[in-house]
Design goal:
The complex is a heterodimer of chains A (370) and B (289). With 370 residues, chain A is of the alpha+beta class. Helix content of chain A is 35%, strand content 25%. Chain A has eleven helices and 17 strands. Chain A has helices at 3-12, 28-36, 63-73, 144-153, 161-179, 225-232, 251-263, 280-292, 309-321, 338-347, 356-369; strands at 20-23, 40-44, 57-60, 77-78, 81-82, 86-90, 96-105, 110-116, 131-135, 182-193, 196-199, 203-206, 236-239, 244-248, 270-273, 297-304, 329-335. In chain A, strands 7, 8, 9, 10, 11 and 12 form a six-stranded antiparallel beta sheet that branches. The radius of gyration of chain A is 26 Å and the shape is elongated. In chain A, 48% of the residues are buried. Chain B has helices spanning 19-31, 57-63, 75-87, 102-115, 155-167, 188-197, 214-222, 258-267, 279-286, and strands at residues 11-14, 35-39, 47-48, 51-54, 68-71, 92-95, 118-120, 126-129, 133-136, 145-152, 172-177, 203-209, 229-234, 271-273. Chain B has nine helices and 14 strands. In chain B, helix 3 (75-87) runs parallel beside helix 4 (102-115) and helix 7 (214-222) packs parallel to helix 8. With 289 residues, chain B is an alpha/beta fold. The chains are: A alpha+beta (370), B alpha/beta (289). At the A-B interface, helix 7 of A face helix 1, helix 4 and helix 5 of B.
Chain lengths: 370, 289
């Protein structure tokens, strides 16, 4: 989710954010700046930190300056990402910068609130002693007393306006985290501006697995076209730099296949996990994704559990007989319905390997020859 | 002996009438699992492979003694199913389903902890006490009785390694899948402690992967174990910042790396295999076979 989307979400829940608007054309900056009627900040909207250092954040005192700055930032490439949207906001008077986030701590199996009175920089760069971590018991939830204790530990007086405001912000942030199935909600920096406390930035990541019940949220595609096509098939795909296309079933064995290829001197073109009981059609579609990678060789490594060898063999046969394979293919096929799968492969003149390391070695050799 | 489940475990299959539920009910029965009942809301009265289906876990529990349940319910209904089992007093809940929202996982795991139930998964292949009982989806023929305990985050990689163990004459006491997600019910340490106490387990294989710090934390306990441990970590060649299939398998901000995990395990006295097929050799070496 882009910063401006996160801030719109924050605003809906009543979290204080600067006034501003997103634009997709630099000329619009004048109108927005005039509407705000104060000095503004122009922020590139890309899914990357370090925007400031890359020159993707600029300030302007007048609408004319705002347009000039917007033109400079628009179209910039920041960490490989083109700037296509800008957020124009009032420039805040910043008295102090803090850090605040809630995320999932997998080891503790519960959410954790991370706060620091030292914000504005990457939280990884803040000394441990200035970082407050408060796990949130999911059965207890977030309550004012927990928020008050965090504020106390941050060294902010509870009697003042800032302390009271942060207690509210912490509770709201947890509400957003829970209701929107977030993996991360982050405000960095959370700023003191006179008596006010304002979320000057936002970073919100929603759990992909929960999108089925979060359909009203804006979604920003972060994956490549192939990765997206695989996801639509219910598969998990990652583009890599090598020349051996890989299909295996299960994340662990797919990683293991990549590692084994590397061990024998090869390099994988991709990670493709077709596990989870993927059927004949989806497997065939997945094979087409691999062909599109234009590899030197291909390895299919199946240890069938919930995935059935016959379905994979049929998918292979379908593709071999329709579009055909442009490179040599090595198949390792064992597990559920193994004999049936091997009979089908025999029909198209292919013999399967028994062992993963032998298949991987062969795939590396073939890639080197091709 | 074995850990968590054995030949006397009465098993309930949740989502038994679905495609996966039906297929794996047969596979589990073929393995020898004592399945006594299933659930499928709205389809109570149906019979799958001779096993009666009920509308709810409570109804199944009223008619049978249930020790453990295995969940084959789609992701959107998984939390409900797991909570239903735990609420009814089932002590072991194996959640096979993949793609369960992380907030649901947090809730399930917290409730299981309060009720003292063991949850394996979500996103696990299940658990096999070799020759006695299988709950979940692994192919039957590779799991034979023997002296090695196996605990893993990933399914097929486990079949790969168990297949190698069996081919080398090393059977297993119990093979435990913790699940590939970021929040799962059971950790390496929980299972290692059980293996350490189990008299039949002579050595343990720990199958990990990049991401998180479960292997590093486990290493602290391995230091204190009397039994030898062999590790294998998947993801050596994975680039940072990319999620390798499992929600938890990602190197974030330099944490969860292959190198860090191998170093932690090695420092704890475990041997780490470079490739999956080297595991049996290392086990034999450590057992002096």
């Amino acid at each position: 989710m882009f910063e401006y989307m996160g801030k719109e979400l924050f605003a809906k829940f009543g979290l204080p954010v600067p006034s501003g608007r997103m634009i997709t054309n630099p000329e619009e900056a004048a109108a927005v700046a005039a509407e705000i009627g104060k000095p503004v900040v122009i922020k590139s909207q890309v899914l990357s930190g370090k925007r400031g250092k890359a020159g993707g954040i600029k300030f302007a005192d007048t609408p004319e300056q705002a347009v000039a700055a917007a033109k400079e930032i628009f179209g910039m490439i920041i960490q490989g990402l083109p700037v296509e949207r800008l957020l124009i906001e009032e420039k805040l008077k910043i008295d102090k910068e803090l850090y605040m986030s809630i995320t999932v701590d997998g080891a503790a199996k519960m959410p954790v609130l991370i706060a620091s009175a030292h914000g504005g920089m990457d939280i990884e760069e803040v000394d441990e002693e200035f970082i407050i971590k408060q796990h949130i018991d999911p059965e207890l939830g977030m309550h004012p007393f927990i928020a008050r204790d965090v504020v106390r530990r941050m060294g902010i007086p509870l009697s003042g306006p800032h302390g009271k405001e942060i207690v509210k912000i912490i509770q709201t942030l947890y509400r957003i985290f829970k209701q929107k199935d977030a993996e991360l909600v982050e405000i960095n920096p959370l700023v003191f501006s006179d008596d006010k406390v304002i979320a000057a930035d936002s970073k919100v990541t929603i759990d992909d697995d929960a999108l089925f019940r979060q359909k009203d949220l804006p979604y920003v595609e972060e994956r490549s076209a192939t990765e997206k096509a695989a996801k639509d098939l219910g598969l998990s795909f990652v583009d890599l730099d090598g020349n051996i296309a890989v299909m295996a079933n299960g994340a662990g064995i797919t990683m293991g296949t990549l590692d084994t290829l590397q061990y024998y001197g090869g390099a994988a073109a991709n990670f493709l996990d077709c596990g989870g009981g993927t059927g004949r059609e989806a497997t065939a579609e997945a094979l087409k994704l691999l062909i599109a990678k234009n590899p030197k060789s291909m390895i299919i490594n199946i240890f069938g559990g919930i995935t059935r060898c016959d379905q994979v063999a049929l998918a292979f046969k379908d593709i071999k007989e329709s579009v055909g394979f442009p490179c040599p293919v090595v198949i390792r096929l064992v597990g559920t319905n193994q004999d049936l799968g091997r009979e089908i492969l025999a029909e198209v003149g292919v013999e399967a390997f028994d062992f993963m390391q032998d298949a991987a070695k062969k795939a590396v050799e073939l890639a080197a020859q091709g | 002996m074995a850990i968590i489940i054995d030949e006397n475990t009465n098993v309930l299959v949740m989502g038994m009438t679905g495609r996966q539920g039906t297929f794996h009910t047969k596979q589990m029965l073929d393995y020898g699992t004592k399945i006594v009942a299933g659930t499928s809301p709205g389809k109570g009265g149906a019979v799958v492979e001779g096993i009666p289906a009920y509308n709810s876990v409570r109804e199944a529990c009223a008619n049978h003694k249930i020790d453990a349940s295995v969940v084959f319910v789609p992701a959107a209904g998984t939390k409900d199913a797991a909570l239903e089992s735990i609420e009814a007093g089932v002590g072991v809940v194996v959640v096979v389903t993949e793609g369960v929202p992380v907030h649901d996982e947090i809730e399930m795991v917290a409730y299981a902890k309060r009720r003292g139930a063991i949850v394996l998964g979500p996103n696990t292949f299940g658990i096999v006490s070799s020759g006695k009982c299988k709950m979940g989806i692994p192919p039957n023929k590779y799991f034979v009785e023997g002296p090695v305990g196996v605990v893993a985050r990933s399914g097929t990689l486990t079949y790969e390694i168990v297949g190698n163990l069996t081919a080398n004459g090393l059977g297993q006491t119990t093979v435990v899948g913790m699940g590939g997600d970021r929040v799962v019910g059971t950790t390496f340490i929980d299972v290692l402690q059980m293996f350490e106490k189990d008299p039949l387990t002579k050595a343990v294989v720990l199958i990990g992967e990049i991401g998180g710090n479960a292997e590093e934390t486990a290493s602290e306990y391995i230091k204190t174990m009397s039994k030898p441990v062999v590790g294998y970590i998947a993801g050596k060649s994975a680039p940072p910042g990319k999620r390798m299939g499992h929600a938890g398998a990602i190197i974030e901000r330099g944490k969860g790396t292959f190198q860090g995990k191998v170093e932690a395990l090695t420092a704890a006295g475990a041997k780490v295999a470079t490739l999956p097929f080297e595991v049996p050799g290392l086990i034999k070496e450590m057992l002096g076979m």
